[in-house]
């Protein structure tokens, strides 16, 4: 019979899902409905367990009460080739759309990207960050303190642009919405391809 996930398993899932940005102790405690001291103790146990597990290539690191998984140092050379190979060669339509939305609206939060695309963009943004095309720009001062994202110089190089001023212009009165993102992508692809 299927059993409900433990608090420990939920914490692991949260940290994994947070990716390179990590997740704060406060966010973890809130998500699993537990106190910060109790979560801190469980996370300490998790870190020690991973560190002592020869069958795990991961370690749990914490800085300023933000937790994230990282490859153990002894595997750095092993994964180096994969990380290089993981740089984008061909982007999916969804990834292109997300990059274009970020380029035209940066800095922009993930929720704002979702509103324009009409679907959850968390996984795509995480992948774009890992590929070096997008980076965290800062924190928006509103409820939840969401991260804002912007494109990188590598992103400009990837698309053959010298600067963001080379982007195709949007009509001044046009606001990006789910309905207009398809026409944006058509223009974006056509003009980028012509450069």
How would you characterize this protein structure?
The mean pLDDT is 81. This protein is α+β, with helices and mostly antiparallel strands and 195 residues long. The protein has a three-stranded antiparallel sheet. It has a three-stranded antiparallel sheet with strand order 4-6-5. The chain is built from nine helices and six strands, in the order H-E-H-H-E-E-H-H-E-H-H-E-E-H-H. Helix 2 packs across helix 3. The protein starts with 6 loop residues before the first helix and ends with a helix.
Query: Strand order of the main beta sheet, please?
Result: 1-3-2
Mean pLDDT: 81
**Uncertain spans:** none
Overall geometry: globular
Biggest β-sheet: count, sense, barrel? Answer: 3 strands, antiparallel
Portion in helices = 40-55%
The count of DSSP E runs of length 2 or more, i.e. the number of strands, is 6
Distance between the termini: 58 Å
- CA-atom Rg in angstroms: 20 Å
The secondary-structure class comes to alpha+beta
Strand content: 5-15%
């Amino acid at each position: 019979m299927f059993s409900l996930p433990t608090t420990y398993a939920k914490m692991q899932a949260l940290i994994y899902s947070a990716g390179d940005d990590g997740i704060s102790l406060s966010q973890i405690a809130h998500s699993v409905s537990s106190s910060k001291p109790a979560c801190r103790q469980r996370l300490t146990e998790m870190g020690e367990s991973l560190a002592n597990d020869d069958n795990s290539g991961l370690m749990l690191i914490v800085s300023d009460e933000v937790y994230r998984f990282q490859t153990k140092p002894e595997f750095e050379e092993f994964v180096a080739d994969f990380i290089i190979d993981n740089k984008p060669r061909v982007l999916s339509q969804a990834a292109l759309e997300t990059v274009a939305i970020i380029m035209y609206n940066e800095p922009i939060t993930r929720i704002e990207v979702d509103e324009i695309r009409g679907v959850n963009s968390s996984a795509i943004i995480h992948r774009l960050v890992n590929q070096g095309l997008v980076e965290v720009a800062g924190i928006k001062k509103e409820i939840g303190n969401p991260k804002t994202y912007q494109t990188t110089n590598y992103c400009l190089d990837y698309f053959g642009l010298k600067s963001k001023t080379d982007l195709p212009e949007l009509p001044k009165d046009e606001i990006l919405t789910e309905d207009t993102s398809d026409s944006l992508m058509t223009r974006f692809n056509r003009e980028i391809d012509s450069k």
